[in-house]
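Supplementary Methods. Inverse-folding protocol.

Structures were first reduced to a discrete structure-token string of length 241. This string, shown here, constituted the complete conditioning input.
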């Protein structure tokens, strides 16, 4: 993988945030963390089609800073990152937002949490992220294009959510789409998923390990595999022929 292009993309994306990010119509954005980095390597064509990449994870931020001397901030779509800025913006203007992702019950609970905190947000609609048939997925994309909300938030997990955004853009969507990973199910029980002290000490990854089932398998990837792969890719990019 060409790490130079990856680093240049996340650097430019960070420099464009938030003004250009929230005003560039027809753009689709996603976040990359140490766990999803291996997906970026294996499905680079998918992530190359995104208009911006943001770094979710302090370990990745530190690795980029160490090896490339770039001061990359953590920008994830949650209430410790981009979601706060976008929801504040939407709560103070007439722009609309649409949500796709999570199970229906969790999504409905999340919508209530958002409305409780940001009562003036104009939510154009929402739908769970499970499609029984390919036709259902196509129908939902067509529906979003028809509604044409200013923003679409997609939480389906990588790389499914990225491909949904790509297909949405191809279908003619003119607004701005963000992927959000697990945000839509994490927020079901409260607008702030992470306690303040967790955010303060950047312990979000470890907090999730103890609060979400099935994440312990990521620990090896995050702490061992990612640093090795990123170091290898960086050395190969800088010194390889």
């Amino acid at each position: 993988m060409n790490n130079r292009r990856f680093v240049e993309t996340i650097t430019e994306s960070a420099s464009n945030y938030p003004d250009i990010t929230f005003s560039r119509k027809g753009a689709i954005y996603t976040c990359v963390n140490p766990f999803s980095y291996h997906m970026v390597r294996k499905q680079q064509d998918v992530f190359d089609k995104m208009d911006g990449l943001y770094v979710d994870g302090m370990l990745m931020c530190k690795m980029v800073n160490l090896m490339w001397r770039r001061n990359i901030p953590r920008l994830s779509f949650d209430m410790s990152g981009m979601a706060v800025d976008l929801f504040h913006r939407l709560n103070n203007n007439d722009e609309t937002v649409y949500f796709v992702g999570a199970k229906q019950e969790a999504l409905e609970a999340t919508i209530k949490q958002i409305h409780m905190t940001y009562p003036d947000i104009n939510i154009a609609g929402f739908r769970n992220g499970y499609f029984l048939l390919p036709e259902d997925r196509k129908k939902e994309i067509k529906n979003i294009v028809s509604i044409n909300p200013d923003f679409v938030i997609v939480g389906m997990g990588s790389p499914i959510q990225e491909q949904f955004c790509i297909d949405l853009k191809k279908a003619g969507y003119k607004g701005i789409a963000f992927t959000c990973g697990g945000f839509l199910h994490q927020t079901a029980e409260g607008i702030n998923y992470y306690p303040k002290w967790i955010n303060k000490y950047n312990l979000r990854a470890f907090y999730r390990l103890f609060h979400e089932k099935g994440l312990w398998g990521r620990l090896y990837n995050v702490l061992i595999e990612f640093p090795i792969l990123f170091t290898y890719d960086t050395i190969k990019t800088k010194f390889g022929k």
